[in-house]
Amino acid sequence: MICMNTDKTLKTGTTTLGIIARNGVVIAAEKKATIGYMVDSKVARKVYKLDDHIGLTIAGSVGDAMAIVRMLKAQFKLFKMERGPITIKAAATLLSNILHGNKYFPYYNQFIIAGHDVRGPQVYSLDPVGGGSNLDKYYSTGSGSPFAYGVLEADFKENISTDEAVALAVKALKSAVSRDIASGGKGFTVVIIDSNGYRELSDQEIAKYN
Question: Of residues 6, 9, 12, 14, which has the active-site annotation?
Answer without folding.
Answer: 14
